[in-house]
């Protein structure tokens, strides 16, 4: 697809979007009429306020649980355990995660960089990606391996620093209405085969992204793109159908693809999804299925040179196997460890928050969960405080909702280009967590759902759920309160958590059967609604989108797995997408919090931590948007202070 100053639009033809070049021969496009998000709204239901009874029963329950499951609190310290308080109080956790990083031996100067360039770093990944195109397979491993290494986005951003910084685009402007975004591309940027990167590649990527037949999971999140115009070889404009202050952050998570490689073949069926040609600092060198993926420094890269000549991602699903290979010296860095991992003493070790929120979602179309009382009772029967202490060893935050701090306090990231900020191992929540936790947002709605079995049983009894036949399971109208919970087989943390939840539910007459299934089947069942309840995890990083979780139009096509349908929630979500002023957004989030709480389509559980272990001779360890930043890594060539 060549570059020109002409203009092209997406035209509707027999129900399918296609690129149609205008007389000028351009390579922009326009979304077909009628493809967008609907705007609706009426008032929602009333919030059920919690009572504060049965504190003594709660304390007794805590004592029984922490003793009965054999996972009593550990002493505080670097192991990240818990201190043991008075017998009648819940366990109190050490708020400070453990970090153990060696100082940077070689400052970042030209002389020192020459001394430490070269070599190979070997990094463990817990699973093998399906492809290396994250817009097609937006799982964390694909993003970790390919984004900003093989591929570049127009701009770069993270949850660790405010604003956005240049990537493929060296400059950009945003109009006052946040509906038109113009970008100027770096004229020195090249694809790994030597072809220049042009505005036509950006137009191609965005066109394929929103094509309804393109099988791109991220399509719904970019459905507000209305028009793309190629201004010249290195200039492009994107027009939106309404103000979208968070659009830049979304673009920072979208890899730009080469138009000349994919041509007219659908991205999902093109062989280059496993043999990609990108524009980033590394190029794919080898992929041994089930074993490793190796990247080499790209000779076409014109930016600052990364330190390592090669990065090898070793596929090692089991944590114990990964640590065994690490201690043998066959692996340099092991990320993706659970936050409660206890490291050896002769390693570098950090913990960090993951950009994700975990929850139990209820299928509201199923009879057992069709009424809010049963769903609300479920939220009151999950003892998140005890699970955080006994299973997570305090290396997780209790989630009161899916909303990350950056969404409330810095939603837009629409500032002008800024110089790149120094990267580091940023371990705490950015954008002022203290202010966030003191806000009214934290105090209402979902934050009121603490463990309260007495209130839960009262709710169930008033809603008609009683044990009429004396078999130990509550029933109503001849239907037992019995359901199946599905979870993916690769989420071992879920398996540990649901074992505790199942025991708690059984004590009040609720039967939960657990089905651990393969990831593909799990996703298919979620999308089709073939489940009673499920453990899920939502990305709260750059691509966080509350619309896709709670809007009626997102049921069956995005992440509204519960089937929530509330016109007032829809109206507030539509308004939230176009508001950039923080106080107004906070007010909208508070209202959403109350409405979602009253509907209770899911119970939010945890925002987990993750741990990284690194060899003594590795420097430049940093975490960006929940992932190890491989571009800052380098090796210390001086003799190690402590033998491995």
How would you describe the overall organization of this protein?
The protein has 18 helices and 30 strands. The chain is an alpha+beta fold. The strands form ten sheets. It has a five-stranded antiparallel β-sheet with strand order 3-11-12-10-9, with helices on one face. Strands 23-22-24-18-25 form a five-stranded mixed β-sheet, sandwiched between helices. β22 (482-488), α14 and β23 form a beta-alpha-beta unit. The termini are far apart. Residues 1-26, 36-89, 105-115, 410-447 and 640-644 have low confidence and may be disordered.
Keyphrases for this structure?
single chain; 644 residues; alpha+beta; five-stranded antiparallel beta sheet; five-stranded mixed beta sheet; 18 helices; 30 strands; 25% helix; globular; disordered C terminus
Short description:
This protein is of the alpha+beta class and 644 residues long. It contains 18 helices and 30 strands. The strands form ten sheets. Strands 3-11-12-10-9 form a five-stranded antiparallel sheet, covered by helices on one side. Strands 23-22-24-18-25 form a five-stranded mixed sheet, sandwiched between helices. A four-stranded mixed sheet has the order 6-15-14-13, with no helix packed on it.
Q: Overall mean pLDDT score?
A: 78
Number of strands: 30
Low-confidence stretches: 1-26, 36-89, 105-115, 410-447, 640-644
The portion of residues forming beta strands comes to 15-25%
Chart the SSEs and their pairings.
Elements: E1 8-13, E2 16-21, E3 29-30, H1 55-68, E4 82-83, E5 92-93, H2 110-116, E6 120-125, H3 140-146, E7 155-156, E8 165-166, E9 169-174, E10 180-185, H4 199-210, E11 225-232, E12 235-240, H5 247-251, H6 259-262, E13 282-288, E14 292-297, E15 310-315, H7 319-328, E16 333-338, E17 348-353, E18 356-362, H8 372-380, H9 384-390, E19 396-398, H10 405-409, H11 433-438, H12 440-443, H13 453-462, E20 475-476, E21 479-480, E22 482-488, H14 492-506, E23 511-517, H15 519-528, E24 533-539, H16 546-550, H17 567-577, H18 582-599, E25 602-604, E26 606-614, E27 618-619, E28 623-624, E29 627-628, E30 634-635
Parallel strand pairs: 6-15, 22-23, 22-24
Antiparallel strand pairs: 1-2, 3-11, 4-5, 7-8, 9-10, 10-12, 11-12, 13-14, 14-15, 16-26, 17-26, 18-24, 18-25, 19-26, 20-21, 27-30, 28-29
């Amino acid at each position: 697809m060549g570059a020109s100053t002409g203009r092209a639009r997406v035209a509707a033809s027999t129900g399918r979007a296609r690129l149609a070049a205008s007389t000028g021969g351009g390579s922009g496009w326009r979304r077909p009429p009628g493809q967008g998000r609907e705007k609706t709204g009426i008032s929602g239901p009333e919030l059920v306020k919690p009572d504060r009874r049965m504190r003594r029963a709660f304390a007794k329950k805590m004592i029984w649980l922490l003793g009965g499951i054999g996972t009593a609190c550990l002493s505080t310290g670097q192991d990240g355990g818990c201190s043991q308080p008075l017998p009648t109080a819940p366990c109190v956790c050490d708020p400070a995660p453990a970090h153990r990083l060696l100082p940077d031996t070689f400052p970042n100067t030209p002389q020192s960089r020459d001394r430490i360039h070269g070599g190979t770093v070997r990094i463990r990944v817990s699973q093998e990606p399906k492809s290396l195109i994250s817009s097609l397979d937006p799982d964390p491993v694909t993003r970790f391996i390919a984004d900003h290494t093989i591929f570049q986005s127009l701009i770069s951003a993270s949850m660790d620093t405010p604003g956005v910084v240049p990537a493929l685009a060296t400059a950009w402007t945003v109009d006052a209405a946040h509906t038109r975004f113009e970008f100027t591309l770096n004229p020195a940027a090249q694809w790994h085969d030597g072809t220049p990167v042009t505005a036509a590649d950006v137009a191609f990527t965005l066109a394929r992204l929103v094509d309804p037949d393109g099988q791109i999971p991220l399509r719904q999140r970019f459905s507000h793109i209305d028009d793309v115009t190629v201004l010249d070889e290195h200039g492009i404009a994107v027009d939106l159908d309404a103000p979208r202050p968070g659009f830049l952050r979304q673009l920072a998570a979208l890899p730009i693809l080469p138009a000349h490689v994919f041509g007219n073949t659908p991205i999902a069926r093109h062989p280059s999804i496993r043999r990609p040609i990108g524009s980033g600092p590394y190029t794919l060198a080898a992929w041994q299925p089930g074993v490793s993926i190796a990247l080499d420094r790209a000779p076409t890269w014109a930016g600052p040179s990364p330190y390592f000549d090669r990065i090898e991602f070793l596929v090692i699903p089991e944590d114990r196997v990964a640590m065994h290979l690490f201690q043998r010296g066959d692996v340099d860095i092991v990320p993706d460890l659970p936050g409660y991992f206890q490291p050896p003493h002769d390693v570098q070790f950090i913990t960090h928050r993951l950009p994700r929120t975990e929850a139990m979602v209820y299928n509201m179309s199923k009879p057992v969960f069709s009424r809010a009382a049963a769903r609300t009772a479920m939220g009151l029967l999950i003892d998140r405080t005890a699970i955080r202490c006994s299973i997570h060893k305090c290396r997780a935050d209790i989630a009161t909702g899916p909303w990350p701090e950056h969404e409330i306090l810095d939603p837009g990231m629409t500032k002008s280009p800024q110089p790149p900020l120094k990267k580091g191992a940023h371990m705490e929540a950015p954008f002022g967590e203290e202010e966030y936790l003191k806000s009214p947002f934290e105090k209402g709605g979902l934050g009121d759902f603490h463990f309260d079995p007495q209130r839960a049983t009262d709710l169930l009894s008033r809603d008609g759920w009683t044990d009429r036949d004396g078999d130990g399971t509550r029933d109503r109208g001849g239907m037992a309160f019995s359901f199946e919970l599905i979870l993916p087989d690769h989420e071992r943390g879920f398996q540990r958590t649901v074992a505790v939840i199942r025991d708690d539910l059984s004590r009040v007459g609720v039967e939960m059967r657990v089905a651990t299934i393969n990831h593909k089947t799990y996703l298919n069942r979620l999308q089709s609604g073939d489940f009673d309840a499920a453990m899920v995890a939502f990305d709260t990083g750059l691509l966080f989108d509350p619309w896709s979780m709670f809007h009626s139009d997102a049921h069956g096509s995005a992440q509204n797995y519960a089937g929530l349908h509330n016109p007032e929630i829809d109206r507030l979500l539509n308004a939230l997408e176009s508001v950039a002023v923080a106080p107004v957004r906070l007010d909208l989030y508070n209202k959403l919090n109350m409405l979602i709480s009253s509907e209770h389509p899911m119970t939010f559980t945890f925002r987990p931590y993750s741990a990284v272990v690194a060899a003594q001779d590795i420097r430049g360890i940093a975490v960006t948007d929940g992932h190890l930043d491989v571009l800052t890594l380098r090796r210390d060539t001086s003799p190690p202070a402590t033998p491995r």
